[in-house]
Design brief:
By secondary structure, the protein is an alpha+beta fold. The protein has one domain. Helix content is 21%, strand content 31%. The chain has 3 helices and 9 strands. Strands 1-7-6-4-3-2 form a 6-stranded mixed β-sheet. A 3-stranded antiparallel β-sheet has the order 5-9-8, covered by helices on one side. A hairpin with a 2-residue loop joins strand 3 and strand 4. The protein starts with 7 loop residues before the first strand and ends in a 6-residue tail after the last strand. The mean pLDDT is 86.
Length: 166
């Protein structure tokens, strides 16, 4: 098995309802890669993180989303159709690289490709912001990531999940 993410949970109707309400209140963010369509999955990632690691929402400031055990956390979430693997990347868009959270937390939300429903969330790991910046490699929009063949959607910084703390 090439993945091991024991911290995971089912998506509940309550989590989805809160995420949808939060996504609507955010509206379309500047530089949104998906034109605002990623707000729901991003908010769902925060909901799942808070389910797994009870903390408090930081009212979606630009710099961080959650406060957990005294640390400010910027939660980054990817939508997938398959469970994450350790070789997959934790990404931070270049235009968000100035956020000032203590650490990043990375979540994956599984969407059933046949029913179009979100079904499961995985906590992929966390990393202190300064450590992330020292390990991350830069990828330019439009290039192909040599590690996985993905066409990069926006300039970003990547670190493999296997390099994150769990």
């Amino acid at each position: 098995m090439s993945y091991f993410f024991p911290d995971n949970c089912s998506i509940t109707p309550d989590m989805l309802a809160r995420a949808q309400a939060a996504a609507i209140s955010i509206g379309q963010l500047n530089n949104s890669i998906r034109g605002g369509a990623g707000n729901e999955v991003g908010c769902l990632g925060e909901e799942a993180f808070l389910f797994l690691f009870p903390g408090s929402v930081s009212n979606n400031t630009y710099h961080h989303d959650i406060t957990y055990q005294g640390m400010t956390i910027e939660c980054k979430t990817k939508e997938r159709t398959v469970p994450p693997q350790l070789r997959y990347d934790a990404s931070v868009a270049n235009y968000n690289s100035t956020q000032q959270a203590d650490c990043y937390a990375f979540m994956s939300i599984i969407k059933n490709q046949y029913t179009d429903n979100y079904v499961r969330a995985y906590f992929c790991g966390f990393i202190l912001t300064e450590e992330y910046k020292s390990k991350a490699r830069f990828l330019e929009k439009g290039t192909i990531d040599p590690d996985n063949g993905w066409v990069v959607q926006a300039d970003c910084w990547n670190v493999a999940y296997r390099e994150l703390d769990r």
